[in-house]
Amino acid sequence: MEMEIILMQDVNGLGAQGDIMKVSHGYARNFLFPQKLAAPATPAHVKMLEMEKKRKEAEARRAMVELRKEAGKLSAASCTIPARAGEDGKLFGSVTAQDIADQLVKAGFAIDKKQIVLPEPLKELGVFTVEVKFHQDITAPLKVWVVESKGSSKE
To answer: What is the DSSP letter of 81?
Structure first.
């Protein structure tokens, strides 16, 4: 004999949160319900689940709008990184994603080095365009100016 349940959390081998599943009475009563992994699929629970899904979708849409705004601001900005260089324009060392992230944080952007797509460190003076990934669907180009510093080390 089976009963319908709504999964309140992901359950390995059974389903994801929000799924409506049919399981045996014993499995539901002895394991899923006491662990708060599931609830009976009553009309009230189903309605609550639908409302929760709508709330999460609206929240995700708002977050995407905010990320797009942030990406727009970043693509209009540029980042200047001073570095020591030799006479031929080659850097002593390199400019990494961490260096770019540090400069962006100083400029007021909440960017982590993992968001900066830099295939290899920048090793010469010049202007470079790097991608900053906010989400799998949202990226922004960023102009990075690597200029010669007047000091004796990276600033």
So the answer is: E
- Residue 100 parent element (H or E): helix 97-106
State which H helix or E strand residue 3 sits in.
strand 2-7
Q: What is the tally of structural domains in the chain?
A: 2
| Block residue for tokens 């180009």 | 141
Left (φ > 0), alpha (ψ -120 to 50) or beta: where does 110 sit? beta
Q: For the chain, first and last CA: distance in Å? A: 71
- What is the secondary structure of 123-140 as a DSSP string? EESEEEEEEEEEETTEEE
The set of residues, in sequence order, having a beta carbon less than 8 Å from that of 23 and lying 6+ positions away, is 2, 3, 5, 14, 32, 38
Q: Which of 128, 140, 114 is nearest to 79 (CA)?
A: 128
pTM (2 decimals)? 0.65
pLDDT in tens, 3-50: 999 998 999 999 998 899 999 999 999 999 999 999 999 999 889 888
* β-strand pairing of 138-148 with 78-83: parallel
What CATH code is carried by the domain that includes residue 127? 3.10.430.100
Nearest 5°: phi and psi at 42?
-80, 160
Containing domain of residue 134, as a range? 69-148
